[in-house]
């Protein structure tokens, strides 16, 4: 399965300039729950997953799993010699579900130029966006976020 992802949320348990960044994918399952998992290419001696009824619950569970793994490795005398920073990437349906109470499909249309009906198909899993569409969404949402970051109130 090809994962077409939107990269938005970066979280770490500690702020440190010498952290190693690890990708974590967040996907909505067919049953409605969410999962967070690392791909196999991270060259770590362990894997981590998180699950929950929402993307945030899956992220929280994932971070708790990381703490538990660090504690386990310490007990085994195999402490990590580096801190990890997790970069969470959403597939399009998971992103839309995660932000549905913050961004309407009509609002997303104004930001991305993608019709609400088409976005609804992605949200429900009836259709999968093309790579070109994902890139268009990513670029438009990043530009919108940049615009918001420039807001200053008097």
Oligomer: single chain
Task: Quote the distance from N terminus to C terminus.
Answer: 49 Å
Structural class: alpha+beta
**Biggest pleated sheet:** 5 strands, mixed
Widest sheet: strand ordering:
1-5-2-3-4
Radius of gyration: 17 Å
Q: Strand-and-helix sequence, N→C?
A: EEEEHEHHHH
Overall mean confidence score, pLDDT: 86
Shape field: globular
Name the beta content range.
15-25%
Number of strands: 5
H/I helix tally: 5
Helical residue percent?
40-55%
3D structure, described in words:
The protein is α+β, with helices and mostly antiparallel strands and 154 residues long. Helices cover 42% and strands 21% of the residues. It has helices at residues 55-75, 92-98, 105-112, 116-124, 131-149; strands at residues 5-12, 20-28, 34-37, 49-52, 84-91. A 5-stranded mixed sheet has the order 1-5-2-3-4. Helix 2 (92-98) crosses helix 4 (116-124) and helix 3 crosses helix 4 (116-124). The protein is globular, with a radius of gyration of 17 Å. Residues 9-17 have low confidence and may be disordered.
């Amino acid at each position: 399965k090809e994962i077409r992802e939107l990269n938005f949320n970066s979280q770490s348990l500690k702020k440190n300039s010498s952290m190693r960044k690890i990708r974590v994918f967040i996907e909505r399952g067919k049953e409605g729950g969410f999962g967070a998992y690392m791909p196999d290419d991270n060259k770590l001696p362990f894997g981590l997953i998180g699950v929950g009824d929402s993307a945030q619950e899956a992220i929280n569970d994932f971070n708790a799993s990381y703490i538990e793994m660090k504690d386990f490795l310490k007990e085994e005398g195999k402490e990590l010699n580096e801190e990890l920073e997790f970069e969470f990437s959403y597939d399009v349906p998971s992103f839309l579900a995660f932000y549905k109470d913050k961004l309407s499909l009509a609002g997303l249309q104004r930001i991305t130029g993608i019709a609400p009906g088409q976005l609804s198909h992605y949200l429900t899993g009836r259709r999968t966006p093309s790579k070109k569409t994902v890139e268009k969404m990513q670029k438009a949402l990043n530009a919108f976020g940049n615009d918001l970051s420039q807001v200053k109130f008097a």
